[in-house]
Amino acid sequence: MTATTYLYVPGDAPERFDKALRSGTDAVVLDLEDAVALDRKDAARTLVAQWVSQCEPSGVELWVRVNPGAIQERDIRAVVSRNLTGIWLPKVESAEQVTAADRVLTECRADHARISALVETATGLLALPRIAHAPRIDYLQIGEVDLAADLGIEVDDSAEQLLFARGQMVTASAAAGIAPPVAAVSVNFTDLPAFEADTRRLRRLGFAGRACIHPKQLPSVRAVFTPTADELRDAKDILDRLSAAPSGVGVDARGRLIDEAVARSARRVLARAR
Predict the structure, then answer these.
(1) What is the CATH number of domain 5-225?
(2) What is the pLDDT of residues 32-64, one digit of tens each?
């Protein structure tokens, strides 16, 4: 996974497609699911398929969130092109659903296309380990509003009620050896300091990147996931000190013990910078 910012665009709003591509986001997510009314699904599919196949991404990733259920295969087959980065699968509750999408992509000869699974129910949460090991899975996501509704929990501004689910997603991703999960959207695009603080908490929990619903949110997400000069300097210093240590452990500039586990975190910081 190379993207940090993911900007949603409704699939039936073609006047916003090019704007999203030029917004500075790492990835555009064209939404055929929740953002599109039922009677607009066919039109949105056609609009998205045409634009994805004809646009010039210029390094921006292009993802499409398809619909669940009976029309999912139709969505996938329609949007496949050389420009498509991958598919966001909503309401995933089993590895078999991912395997079915993988089969369609294979039939379409879209070997380059990746899959991100959105887990939005209690059933999906319990199936996370198997979903994380499914074919083509690049990274996982939580549909937090849907999950909270399914579980019957009330989420306040701290979102501490979702800590257990977020932790399970990070753990399942690490255990499967896939990229860290991408954090869910926030409807808050007016109080940007609060949004940035929330994004920072998610980064500390192990998420890498965040989905956005408004271009105003992009700079905050990028600021959170881009290491500062101090963080880069500290990470490099840790690796240098450990490399020069006579044994497998060393001491950092503050006199604290450092070992391979600390070095792994330092390497992750440097990877974020790249």
Answers:
(1) 3.20.20.60
(2) 999 999 999 999 999 999 999 999 999 999 999
Handedness of CA 194, 195, 197, 198 (dihedral sign): positive
Compute the distance between CA of residue 4 and CA of residue 272 in angstroms, rounded to an integer. Answer: 9
Question: pTM of the entire structure?
Answer: 0.90
- Candidate from 116-120, 131-135, 182-186, 187-191 with smallest mean pLDDT: 187-191
Domain parsing of the chain, residue ranges: 5-225, 229-273
| Residue in this structure with the two tokens 């949603």, named with its chain if needed | 8
According to the 3-state scheme, what is the secondary structure of the chain? Answer: CCCCEEEEEECCCHHHHHHHHCCCCCEEEEECCCCCCHHHHHHHHHHHHHHHHHCCCCCCEEEEECCCHHHHHHHHHHHCCCCCCEEEECCCCCHHHHHHHHHHHHHCCCCCCEEEEEECCHHHHHCHHHHHCCCCEEEEEECHHHHHHHHCCCCCCCCHHHHHHHHHHHHHHHHHCCCCCEECCCCCCCCHHHHHHHHHHHHHHCCCCEEECCHHHHHHHHHHHCCCHHHHHHHHHHHHHHHHCCCCCEECCCCCEECHHHHHHHHHHHHHHC
Contact 48, 10 (CB under 8 A): no
Cα–Cα distance for residue pair 259/82, rounded to 1 Å = 44
Rg (CA), the chain: 20
